[in-house]
Hints:
There is one protein chain. This protein is mostly beta strands. The longest helix is centred in the last third of the chain and has 11 residues, at 614-624. The protein starts with 16 loop residues before the first strand and ends with a strand.
Amino acid sequence: MRVGMTTLLLSAVAAIVIEPEYADVHGGATLTLTLARAYPSSSLQRPHCVFGAVWVPAVLVSHHAGSSLRCTVPASPDLASHAVSVMAGERSEAGDLLLSEQGETEATLVYYKAAELPTLSAVSPSAGRASEPTEVRLFGSNFAPLGGGTARCAFGAVGLSVATFVSPTELKCESPVVEGDTHSVAVEVSNDGYGFSPQQAVLYSFGNPETEPQLRKVVPDLGPLVGAQLELHGYGFYPALQARGRGGALVCDFGGGLPSTNATFVTSTLLRCKAPASKQPQTVTLTVRAQGPVAGMAPLRSTARAFTYYADAPPTVTSASPAYGDLAQPPPYVQLEGRGFAPLGDRLTCAFGDDREVRTAASFVSAVALRCAAPEHLPLGAVAVAASLDGAAFSAPAAAASYISYDSRLPPVVASALPSWAGISGGGGAPVVVSASNVAPTADLACVFDEVGRTTATLLDVGSVACAAPPTRLPHTTQLRLTLDGELLSPSSTAFTFHDAASKPTLSAVVPSYADAASDAPLTLYGKNFAPGDASACVFTAAEGVRVASVATFVSSGNVRCTAPQLSRPLLGTLALTLERYDPSRAADPADPLSPPTPFSLAAAADAAAGVDAAASAAAAADAGADADAALNEANAVAFTWFDPTAPPIATAVSPAYGSVLRRLTVTVRGGNFVPLSAGALRCRFGEMPSTAAVFLRGDSLVCTTLQARAQAQAQAQA
């Protein structure tokens, strides 16, 4: 009877033989059961192979050596690796009959996962002398007796050993004889001698009595006065505790009058032990030794290393990595860099925010590094990060120790861009700083210029990113947006203008095209290639050459705004409106680009409108070359009309002054205070005849159409 297998030995003369002894958990293989005695074909009408509680039809085969059953192996329950008893049986109307009642025995079939490698979880013993073989038991899963002695054990790279199948969870083999110092190797197993178990933390140590243990590094090499858990790195370490109680224990000896502590063997290059508490800060020597005999190994003491105790004090934090995290998928941890960290276990704490209300657990990495669990809930933006050794006294705030939270489920929020424009000639690559929120230095952080393209962005701080303006051919104003992932664009945006410095701006329209001369009406100018970086003014030029102006505000490449200057005495009529650059430093009044020391001013325009010193104004206009009619013919000028809403329009002349009563006549009416009102609002009336719609030409002229008259008459034209 084998341990770990369900095998029942019944009274029998000869044992039943199974071939093969193994099968894949999915079943389907053909199995042969050689029975203990011969059965005539007529004696077994419905033979079966019985796998545990599963009955499978079989074929009875008779031969010179006896009888056997052939059947198909069923799938393992739950497709699990295990051993199952196999028996012969017969089904009839009288009932099921196991042939064990006729002297047949049971056999054992091992199910295993043929498509998977075996798995090794432990070895016993885990060490032995290198100069002699040691029988080693190997524990794991998915072991199978494939036959032919194919199972193997591998001890590192020193060679293979034949393995003996014990059960689906245990093999046996002997460790090889090796030379060299004490060392540990990884152990692997194979069912067929080719496919070995994955390398895991299953080690076997070969011991050499002549090897002197070397202690090379202690991690950490400093700790608080209460003590700390230590990792001892070196080579030549050997486990002191042996099978069946032979040997003693590995201990760590600390100088400075401190007690020794037990050491735990991990590998020939790694031990663990705890530094005892110290009453005062000090540096002590640390060595490792075996206490008592160790299975033929001399109890040698290792070389020494220093360990330092320090007084408890808040650490210093200088930076956090990663410096940002997604609230939708927080990073596994945030690592703090600094100094004064110590392995204090659950006492280590990280705090986020100036108020330090959001706290997470921390884990020790080294004296200069600490790992914090990432918080699940934080406000968007940057928060300070602090660390504490005891959960009470935290590190002082540091500008570099900050953590930026963003939410990938939400788009960035764009506020502004500086500068908000770039030239098209050499403008590609011009640096732009975008102010925004919910930004982070992700791999796909980019600026997106609508209808132009995108450029890679760099996070400057929690509220701004930098990118380059892409090249373009035509001057225009577009919208600048941000993206964190290259897909989701910010719904908020800021206007960004591409300007052609080599071409002049062109003005095409003003809305409204007229205004009350006594008010400061807002105006919107439309055109192309307006310059966002230049100081510009709306300049109104009258027929007399008088000029008045107001400061223009840039809106977009095709849109600027200004106000119609309020005049103390109205300057009526249609003027030429142009958009011109000016130097704010030369204007006495920043709100009036033409104020002294420039030659024209709002006061001079008002005097000219009232007929005061008209000759001087006309002379100044002649010197400046300003003429409204000439200005209106320029490409960069539009007509603008001032009127007095308190006075009616005045008609002073008509052309022609006469016409036939038999047909309509187009008449030009001249006068003043005409306004370009909406269609049908501006009208002409000739005498007592009904009024007709007028077409506005300028502030002093209209075009009207007369109606047919019943008789010859003279009529006054009114607008």
